[in-house]
Each structure stands twice: as C-alpha cells, then as structure tokens.
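Pinned message: reference record for Acetylornithine aminotransferase
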Amino acid sequence: MATQNNVDRALFDEVMVPCYSPMEVIPVKGKGSRVWDQAEKEYVDFAGGIAVSCLGHCHPAMVAALTDQAQKIWHLSNVMTNEPALRLAKKLTELSFAEKVFFANSGAEANEAALKLARRWAVDNYGPEKSEIIAFQQGFHGRTFFTVTVGGQSSYSDGFGPKPSDVVHLPYNDLAAFKAQISDRTCAVMMEPLQGEGGIISPTPEFIQAVRTLCDEHNALLIFDEVQTGNGRTGDFYAYQGTGVTPDILSTAKSLGGGFPIGAMLTTTAIASHFKVGVHGSTYGGNPLACAVAESVVNVISQPQILAGVKEKEQLFRDGLERINAKYPIFSEIRGKGLLLGAVLTEEWHGRARDILQAAGKAGVLVLVAGPNVVRFTPSLVIEDVDIQEGLLRLEKAIASLT
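Predicted structure (tokens):
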C-alpha cells in the first residue's frame, strides 16, 4: 500500500541491498509496547527490536535525555572525552565486576574489541602461540568477519574467503568436549551466558562453573557476550550475576541504548592496560548523544523494582504460553530466563517458526524466531501486564489460524 511519496514495501526492493527480507508492514509510530503501521493498524510488540527496545517505544526518560543532549553537543571524537560517556562508564562499573569501559556502536564492535583485547593480552603476557579462541556451536557474536567466524553458525561465515584462524567450536553444555579441548594454548573462551540466536539455550550450572575453573587453570580469559542477555533482560542487570560466574571481559549493546545505537566492552584494569593509546579505537564510540540516552536507560533498568518486575512478567508469559499450549499443543517446552524466552516447537511443527511469526503479524502481535523451531519473545522489560495479556490473545488467534 503506497503512502505519500510512495514510501512502501516495494521501494525496499528497489533501493535496499537484498540481505534482508522484511515483512510487508512498515511501522511508523510506537508508544510503550504498541506499534502502528502506515494503515494505522496496531500491533503489540513482543519482539522489542530483537531485545533492544527494553523500555518500549518513546519512553519519557529516553525522549527527555535525547532532546536535552540534542541541544548541547552531539559528537566530539575520542580526541576529547565528554560528560555523558564518563557518567555512563562510571555507572556500568558500579553495576558490574568491571573497572574499565570501552564504548563502541554495536554488539559486533564490542565483541570485536573483546576478541582483539584477549589476543593482545595473550601476546603481551605469554607470546604469539597462545592464540586459540574457543567458542560454541550455534553461538552468535556479530557480523564483522572476526565475530562471525567466532560465532558458531557457519552459514553466516562461509563464502567470504579465508577466515581468521585458530578458532574452535564446541557443543554448548558439553563439558567433556570442553575439557578435551582447552589447553595452555587457549587465549580466550567466548560464550553467551544464555544462547539467544542459537535457540534460547541456558547453560547448566556445572558447565558454566567448569568453564570458569578451567579458564583459570589454563590462564585463558573468559569473555561473556551479554549483547542480548544484558541490561536487565534476564532479571539480573547482567546475566552473569545470576550464574555465580564472573567473566574477565563482557560485551553489552542492544538494550544498553534502548534503541539508540551503542555498545560497550567491560573489563578489569589489568586486562584493559593492554589496549595502550592507538591500539584500538572508534570514531563514534562513546559519543555524547548515544551515552546520554544509554545513561537514561541504565538509570531506569537498574532499579531493583524494575529487575524484580522482569521476573514477574516472565511468569505471566510462561503461564499464558502454557494456556495456549493446553488448547493447541504445538510447544514442547518454554526455555530461557526473564524476558528472553523461547517457545520450542514440537516435532510435527518443526521448521514452522517463521509461519507463526507471519501469522502473528497478521493477528497484530510482533514476535521473533530463534532458528526454524523456536518462537522467541524479547519484549520491553516494562511492558504493561495488559499488553502481555492482549498480545497472548492475538498470538493464540494466530496459532488457531494455522491449526
């Protein structure tokens, strides 16, 4: 359906690189956890821009921070520092194990910085032969060539020529395989403390504890990719805080800016010291506009009652999905933690997650997939209970239409 100036879905095919295949609808307005398209049709947003819109759309705290900073200063480059970046970095160190922060623009860039830092730390301390990076199958760490190679889905990294070397992928939660691989040559282990894109898979307590212990034994750094799990998503400010395991380096992005592009790498003073002046950098990283918005997000999300609310809303989702499943038994289990949830499809529904996503869209609710067999939910962390109920009703209608 064309609108003024013919900004419609057909224009996408005309002017955009074809690496995406977006839905037909074009949202034009959002408020809280509701979104409206060009035809003014309303949707309940259970997707949250893939775990990004942690305060929903146009949250007053974010709008105020953006408009206030927009009148002051937008960009300086890292030839100088700025007040919002320093305030945000201070807050992130207060809320985590970290003592030092590097700002980037995305999760991939935060992970790129983490991997480069780990390699530099190993070279400086142990020499160039300590370079092995262990990661996990179905893991996802971004789309730069280094991060997509460390990610455990070869379909994303194949076909671009020679890959960065000395990267090994193991099955997630397979402790025997991990024990067999890790050695004094291992420089770093990179993992999500709850796999997101790979199907919403939680680590077993034994596995995540043993990974930490073995990293210590072999002088390897443990990098947690908290791009999707961070900033309150699991009900802890960072997911590692609910596992009893502390990483050496942590990456954060997505909901850090609540929709404004920003990423960060967090680490200790000792490890950070290996990024001396000129070793790494970013033109936009830590710009005042992004940091001012992110600071407003962190101020809201880090409140204890908001984090507690995430766990309460998780239960509402689980109860609602179980009710739907009692009528239309298509889910074998509900996986995940907090508001990073995956409804796993039964065998006869395998491969149909995208069908559910499309049907849900038609019924007025936005959901995601995590592979072909998992429907993923990553809504706003402050989504109203009434929106959860309404969205689940619409999801039930969508599923009914497919059965």
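Pinned by admin. Summary line: The first strand starts at residue 27 and ends at 31.
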